[in-house]
Specification:
By secondary structure, the chain is an alpha/beta fold. It is built from nine helices and eleven strands. Bound molecules: zinc ion (ZN).
């Protein structure tokens, strides 16, 4: 191969490598490239914390709250602002029952990661405001939709002084195919001390999955702790 050929191949390889890196940096919630993200606790003890995204949901959230109450477990709900406006009573119930409520943007638009910085800020602040209006609490925890982060999201999070929360175990509970048993098995076999488990209270049968997960994790002597306790961070700004 000629000298020019070698240089061209090297440039192409570099281009591909840079693009692979950029995709990973954005798509992997734990990449920590654009924003520092908490994905697990540092505890060496068998403990985990449950997080629920996308709610509150008109039918399924209350059932999830019933199961959590029955087992005396405190979870964190990453809420969609427009759903907060639709079901404020569910958000108030979350707070009354000791759960943490947090930001998951106002509309959960698929275009969110590609939005302008101003739009990203609006989406986050609108959600924070919606939660504040119904609970009187100003949450400082944020989870990016789809776990995708970008330089724009990183900048806004920094400006607003929020903490970003990812996960160490994705349940894949939103997928159509796997049964509840399979989803539970998938979570349980990846359990580790300080695990942050990603679930969705909007899913049909979320309460039955939760019940099964609590049973299996408890059998393995795992204890359920609140997110702020696990990470030793504050969930809210002081008013
Ligand atoms: Zn989501």
């Amino acid at each position: 191969m000629s000298c020019i050929g070698i240089i061209l191949v090297a440039c192409l390889a570099l281009f591909v490598a840079v693009n692979i890196f950029l995709v990973w940096a954005s798509a992997d919630v734990g990449s920590n490239i654009y924003v520092k993200t908490y994905c697990k606790g540092t505890s060496k003890e068998r403990c985990l914390t449950l997080t629920f995204d996308d709610g509150p949901h008109e039918r399924n959230t209350a059932k999830v709250l019933d199961v959590l109450k029955q087992h005396d477990i405190r979870a964190t709900f990453f809420l969609v602002g427009k759903n907060v406006e639709r079901h404020p009573e569910l958000v108030r119930r979350m707070v009354e029952e000791g759960h943490t409520v947090a930001i998951h943007t106002h509309t959960h638009a698929t275009s969110f990661p590609l939005s302008t910085r101003a739009k990203i800020k609006r989406e986050i602040e609108h959600c924070q405001e919606a939660i504040y209006r119904v609970t009187g609490l100003r949450t400082r925890l944020f989870r990016p939709p789809f776990g995708v982060t970008t330089p724009g999201i990183g900048r806004v999070i920094k400006d607003l002084g929020l903490s970003t929360i990812g996960w160490s175990i994705r349940s894949y509970d939103t997928m159509r195919k796997p049964t509840r048993e399979k989803v539970t098995e998938g979570i349980v076999k990846r359990l580790h001390p300080g695990a942050i488990v990603l679930l969705h209270d909007r899913c049909e049968g979320a309460e039955a999955l939760l019940e099964m997960l609590i049973g299996e994790a408890s059998k393995r002597e795992y204890r359920f702790v609140a997110l702020n306790e696990m990470l030793n961070i504050k969930g809210y700004y002081e008013n």
